Amino acid sequence: MSIKRYGIEGGTGTGGQHLPFSSAVEAGGWLYVSGQTPMLHGEVVEGGIVEQSRLAIQNCLNIMKQAGYGLEHVVHVKVFLTDARYFQSFNKVFREVFGEHPPARVCCLADLVVDCKVEVDVTCYNAARVNG
Q1: Residue 42: per-residue pLDDT
Q2: Which GO terms describe its cellular component (predicted)?
Q3: What are the sequence ranges of the domains in the chain?
Q4: What is the pLDDT of residue 41?
Q5: Domain 3-129 part of CATH 3.40.50.720
Q6: Residue 78: strand pairing partners
Q7: Which of 23, 56, 65, 126 is least enclosed by beta carbons within 10 angstroms?
Q8: In whole angstroms, what is the distance from residue 39 CA to residue 118 CA?
Q9: Distance between CA 23 and CA 5 in Å, rounded?
Q10: How far is CA 30 from CA 3, 9, 40, 60, 107, in A?
């Protein structure tokens, strides 16, 4: 089984810092997308939980697409919220994105290392890519 790393050059975090990890890693048909926050070009996009949730999820989807995976391949999502009051609003965005076929999920409260409201990571599986 081979392991393929996406974005190994690392992304750009707040303040222009180099991020020393892959944006995703693929192994045996599985794709593990690193936690994504509502950032564009290394800066957190201001806004409420709905806007930040949409962008964090979209950042995951963009990485998945680059690796050749789609929504139909998502099997598990981890969500980190900074405030329990965001739970219902996040669920509305989650439902908009994943529709009638939602993946398994965990959602917890956490202090995040960047000043935002949400972080999301995604695990995907595509049997057609097992030997890829």
Answers
A1: 83
A2: cytosol
A3: 3-129
A4: 84
A5: no
A6: 106, 121
A7: 65
A8: 11
A9: 8
A10: 10, 21, 26, 15, 21
Spatial separation of the C-alpha atoms in residues 67 and 39, rounded to whole Å:
20
Q: How many CB atoms lie within 10 A of CB 69?
A: 23
Strand partners, 104: 76
Q: Cβ distance 4 to 28 under 8 Å?
A: no
Kindly report, residue by residue over 20-66, the tens digit of the pLDDT: 778 999 999 999 999 999 999 888 998 999 999 999 999 999 999 99
- The amino acid present at 116, given as its one-letter code, is C
Cα separation of 20 and 53, whole Å? 24
Q: Give pTM, 2 decimals.
A: 0.91
Going by C-alpha positions, the residue among 18, 26, 79 that lies closest to residue 53 is 79
